[in-house]
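Hey,
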Amino acid sequence: MKQALVPIAKTLSRVLNYIYFIWDFFIVRRNRPFILGLVITDICNLACKHCRVANIYHTSMSFNDVKKHLLDQYAQGVRYLYLEGGEPYLWRDKDYRLADIVKFAKNTGYFRVHVYTNGTVRLDNSPDFTWVSVDGIGDIFTKIRGIPVDNVLEHIRGYSGRCGIVYTVNTINYKHIHNFLSYIDRELPGVRAMFYFHTPYYGKDFLFLSKTQRSEAVDTIVDSKQKGLPVMNSYAGLKAMDSGNYFHPTNLWRVIDIKGEYQCCRAYGDPEVCENCGYST
């Protein structure tokens, strides 16, 4: 009898947690973190042009440290988890793998667990949602990521879980957005793309878009969305990225890596990064 009541108790606890979250986030709008980006490793198997956070320390969090962070943040009210790297599929601690972290987070009570990956490793079905970085097709992808895109696309095609594409817009790929979306619509039915913009975490570089280029890219994305192509961004989010008129930094999420904890992102406090932030959905 007691065993039969355990699933009911867990379901009731989860429902009450959802109600509390909705009250806090949507009704009262408390100014506290609800989302955690946990950087479980900085080890990566690529050397992408825009990335400067991979393979700096060549190390990963221990499973014990991961569990401690998840429990601490959950106790503070965080309910959504994003697992990041480096490449999170390369995370190891003895016999533990990425799926063990996902399982622990779900058992702890996190509502949703997402994984950000470069897609070079076969995707696991344990996350609630998987974001695969694909910034172009053919030579465009190779120029940015250093490898052909074929293997990544095959992993997406063969994936039975829920996934989406992250396309980071920069000076190399901003004129190829419509062709990319047409390709995805044709070759990966049901998969949609979320667009972010290259953010100058380490100063404005050759990948950084001018305001004119950024506006052109936003116009292309909006036009593509209106034509029914698979764009995940909202119209409001795209408008905000064009104008820069949205609230940042925000206190809604935290980022934790092996070096510490940060509000909003690891460049928190840098006015140039905030002014040119490329994230809005």
